[in-house]
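Please supply some protein, with fold tokens.
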Amino acid sequence: MKAVWNNTVIAESDDTVLVEGNHYFPESALRREYISFSNHKTTCGWKGLASYYSINVNGDVNPDAVWYYAEPKPEAANIRDRVAFWKGVKVS
């Protein structure tokens, strides 16, 4: 699987976990040179507190386009240390 934004591969892995239609990539698959910290947080009733990263490719920023659960609830333990994408990031 590949996560692509702005014609750039942001993550690539053969090991993704599919949850609610989203592919969660191992965090180690992220190309860190395109990732920046975000203060944004949201809460999911069954997965827990989500934190976010922004994507920066050639000066174009896609804020909060990557999310992860640093401490997922027990029922979502399979996505610990994994990231997922939205906001125009194509996963295929």
Remarks:
- The longest strand covers residues 35-44.
